[in-house]
## 1
Amino acid sequence: MKMSKQFPLNALRVFEAAARLGSFTRAGEELGMTQTAVSYQIKLIEENVGEPLFLRRPRQITLTEVGQRLAPRVTEAFEMLQEAVLSARGDVDSALLISSTATFASQWLARNIGSFQLAHPNIAVRLTTSDKIIDLATEAADLAIRSGVGVWPGLDSHPLMRIEFTPMLSPALAETIGGIHEPRDLLKLRIIDAADPWWRLWFEAAGVSDPDLEGRPTSRLGAQTFEARAAVAGQGVAILTPEFYTDDVALGRLYQPFELRCSDGHDYWLAYPHARRNTPKIRTFRDWILGELDPDANGFSK
């Protein structure tokens, strides 16, 4: 039997798009097909499988149990085919698009990426920043660096760095109140982003059960790195990850008044689609960054 008879590839492509997008209409828009044509292709694959793959409801479709089992395998198969074609064309190593949080990108990646580029000049690195969890199946990114617990469906993930936090401020600001001698002294100063849950966790661990943070002015600077710049400028006390600001501490622009550090269980992780785990540029970057940060040596095991 011919392969085209065994595997209706066009219908599988339509099924993959409809399952991923959750809509026949959106699948048609992506593939340049009418909704009628999409429905016809879905019917063909269902006849081939011998089971319904979608539950049709008014203005809504959901995958059946069989469809849920089939969808990720089909997506992986098409991604493998795409990688094979790119590799054959020689394009697979042309560019690596990394999506990272702004803080990790500015405080670690930008400072170290040069060594990767020197070692792998055939890979052009492009970096975008966002704190949102993106869908690597639909977004134009090869891999992502995010904070979390490291569990994202369909993605392989590797721990990179523990996230611990503690208050930090400029020495000059501390001197305006005669220095910081106990945790409650911090409350005499402006707290940068008092609504950040890290503050309550840290004060509780420091034995301050009633820090009265609710009545303070709220501000969201959007990323820890911006809060650090505000702290350096003497605009208040920020709660930061000290490993990122060793240069500022060495230069006397920031200091950490207390040794106490806390964690909320979220850490930095590298994540990429499981189906693309063997893509040369992803594998190369993964090996490099894990070698640079060496999470195993820091007692950080998944």
Note: The mean pLDDT is 86.
## 2
Amino acid sequence: MKRYPSYLKLYESGELKERVEKLYTRLENCDICPHRCEVNRLKDEKGFCKTGEKVIVSSFFPHRGEEFPIRGYRGSGTVFFSYCNMRCVYCQNYDISHLGEGKLYSPEEIASIMLYLQEEECHNINWVSPSHVVPQLVKALYIAVKNGLKIPVVYNTSSYDSIETLKLLDGIVDIYLPDIKYLKEDYGRRYSKVKNYPETVKEAIKEMHRQVGDLKTDENGIAYRGVLVRHLVLPEDISTTKDVIEFLKTVSPDMHVNIMPQYHPYYRAFEYPELSRRIKSDEFLKALKYAQDAGLNLVND
């Protein structure tokens, strides 16, 4: 059965163009993410995310390391955006997220990247760390659709997202790939340097699920719509996994989740003794059991 991404309907109705205009207006006094820095990014002023009007792209390629429903057999068309609206002290991609490694791209150039990834037969377009650059990406999408883009968009996020921005993505994004790090306020402040992380991430994931529902896959097991949550297990239960699982179950008892064991103390993690080691096998198995006992759908890398 042939399935088409929902953004095609928005394009045909003219709504996609209107969304671009609404989002760009918000860049003038930027409130795209929860930081609400109120700088004029159209004049290249920069706030917390250190990003002006143009977007920095670190890399793009058919990614074959994502979860199977995302990568499938031909890879996920991944575009890594530089900088981030969080400052996780243990970030494994700190050269991208903290240091801004990459090259400036216009929406027209990003549209060309997406069309290239479609030509490479990727199953989807995977926006990695998009929360701070949504207007530019929706404009790039509009240009790409005019030129033949017709594969789903994956919104691959740390979940520190603005509800107002997410609502403008309703009908644009078919697959949400959010991450939940922890559900304690002081952990968000200490380890990710953001305020109100637990409440922000909860509201964001509820909104994502409202839009696209539980993960749906085709006859080959490839996702075409829905939410798949990632949760990285951290040492000393800093990841508050039991609370995370209990929350996800309230959103949907059929939620799909990837409990990830690959934590490694990157970047500044050694400045925090509690984060300065790999997790133990029993820590991971305990986290995995929480999800199993809750009856959630487990998805592996």
Note: The beta strands are 55-63, 76-81, 103-105, 125-128, 153-157, 175-178, 216-217, 223-232, 256-260, 297-298.
## 3
Amino acid sequence: MIEVFDATDLPRAREAGALVAGILQTLKSRCEVGTDLLEIDAWTRAMITEAGAQSCYVDYAPSFGRGPFGHHICTSVNDAVLHGLPHAYALADGDLLTLDLAVSLGGIVADSAISFVVGESASPESLALIRATERALSAAIAAARPGARIGDVSHAIGTVLGEAGYRVNTEFGGHGVGSTMHQDPHVPNSGRPGRGYRLRPGLLLALEPWVMADTDELVTDPDGWTLRSATGCRTAHSEHTVAITDDGAEVLTLPERVPAV
């Protein structure tokens, strides 16, 4: 299913995006050495509830997971890159943490992810991974204009990641959002320009470059959810929800849209 909204829906989409951005920035400010992943999940639940919103993850049970997910946020540490299931783990100095959050507010979903290093010991490898995904995300946003095709966006992401020396996994990538979290069109993190669905105003897309330092192969934890690099290398993931408008892509999940919750 592909949902296309009209201009009257954009304020609700902006509110959902601002909420997700605010929660993520609050969580980032609270995460320090010794913070437990289950604390992060509890903080997230409280902020979602206080906002009168709904988590997209608690009842999430796709075919590839061992559902339902049962938590409010994905917490992926070091070699974990996607769908990190919160569990009892105290963050250590130098851990590379990815927080991925999707929330429904006013009937519209916003989805975003940030990667950052906890504490003071940020390795060059970790910083390079994070910066590469952020650059790829910026390139994707620039390419997401009305009349462009999904392949143009995918190509922009893949070009940046490839030039940074990373191999690209296209098994999981960006996607449409709307009244539900995961919709068509799928947005792979590599592709051929000029191919695929043509973007049009009113389309909401979650764009999410992610990489692993020395592989493009994933393995799944015994929890049935957490996806890790097959080699144990570090990983990073950056994501924004954008609205396609007549003028280009409006980023709905920028943190400066709203002060921290």
Note: The longest strand covers residues 96-105.
## 4
Amino acid sequence: MDASILDYNLPKERIAQLPAQKRDNSKLLVFRRETGEIEHRRFSELGEILPHSFSFVRNNAAVLKARIFATRKSGGFVECLLLSPVENNIWQAMLRPGKKLPVGASFFIDGIFKAKVLEKFNDGQAMVEFVENKFSNVVELCENIGAVPLPPYIERDQRAPDYDRKFDNERYETVYADPSRRVAAAAPTAGLHFTPELCSRLEKSGNTFYDITLHVGLGTFQPIKSERVEDHKMHSEIYEIPPETLRVLKGRKDFKTLMVGTTSLRASEDFCRKNPQVDLDKPYFGDASLFVYPPQEIISADALITNFHLPRSTLMCLVGAFLTPGKLGGIEKLKEIYKIAIENDYRFFSYGDAMLIL
């Protein structure tokens, strides 16, 4: 499949810079696969739209406030984007300006922390050790001085004195994120539309919620650069599924599942395809490098909530596969839906509106 099929034209004004004033007041495009019917609704109406009760599977990973601004010895500016812990105080990170931070160089905020570059890699990543830290660990440091890693298409100067750190810290996080699982380098954005009140209404009408934790990495958003979709090398992400969610995924004949977002779907699909023999009283830990694209079948989900994704993304491939399970044409169908969404003033990407596929 030629990767150019994943291109589409998006007017810049359709890229959401801010979320909806109230989370569940975002627009919701409803697509019914059996009939091809499209409805334009509000996310707050989700309970009225669903044809029956579902087992919702959602990613409860919390976003690490991973963007740290500091200074190097010369006085120059440094941006450190933490990706994942390696051991103790050593983290994998992206550094800017990378050329001015060779192995052995350090960066710091006086009286707060000092970090040293241990190793650098060809892909632009680096290994960084926090040799001094006012706080008890690196995550606590991030909570106190870091900023959430907003994607570059959200045009916000996070270094500006008037930057509203509190706003993005709250809104670039789901209401059900588990603070003890601060492992995401980006928000699982389909979940940003839920409010506690909406979750309560859904539960009262017979729906149930189950959590997984997928360590969302930046690789999720890397564009496909190969000429053929099939030649793209997928990154790997760690996930954990607790016993109650395992029982739902193992008992698919008894439960209709609705995946909240592509991260939930990717982890669940990886688990279901591997179909390991597991102890249903213990958490399952997995490692997903699964790349889903048409004409693959999705075996873990009956419905999907997702946002509108970037061109050339693996997320478009996954949603396309869900639209036309077992058949080609899913990406073309997704682009038709996106065209309708653009014509109806839907807002795209992380802070944008949502789509429900039934």
Note: The chain has two domains: 3-63+173-357, 67-146.
